[in-house]
Sequence to fold (178 residues):
Amino acid sequence: MLNGLLSKAFKKSIWVYHANSGGCNGCDIEVLNVLTPYYDVERFGIKLVGSPRHADVMLCQGPASRPTAKALRRAYEAMPAPKLVFAIGSCACGGGIWYDTYNVIGSIDKIIPVDFYIPGCPPRPEAIVFGVAVALGVVDKKVAPVRFKQLEFPIARYHPQDLVEEDGMLVYSKMDHI
Ligand code: SF4
Fold:
């Protein structure tokens, strides 16, 4: 169904809105790099716009965080349908290295529907261009889809209360479980 929608609704130029829901700006820089004349995505008809009201596609970086969740949702709702969302970078795809911090909710698909995921920390500009171009049917896929297995959670974590004193030294008592 998504492929049918893509081929009908996004036949011509695609206007993209660039959103950051709380990333470190590493992915931002790579997305902006993609929009510069060096990578020149306008040759595919992909053009940056300043307002979500004018956008067909949202390129979102950073994990979903509590302070920005409402604003991200509002930006998504302001986009006219049909619309697509790309999660760019490991933070947007799964929370990244911040996944269990106090103000991070996790991947952005906890706030808005995501259609495509481009992982990496940050993904290279070539990966972003290729991911967007493949998704929009501008170029052909070069590889077959790969399915990854999620690591088992919870992974053992450091807790200060597990520090014990041994022979005048502080030792992490659960070290052998990590
Ligand atoms: S994926 Fe990496 S580069 Fe991108 S926002 Fe997260 S930490 Fe920064």
In short: The longest strand covers residues 14-20. Helices lie at 2-9, 26-34, 69-78, 90-94, 125-135.
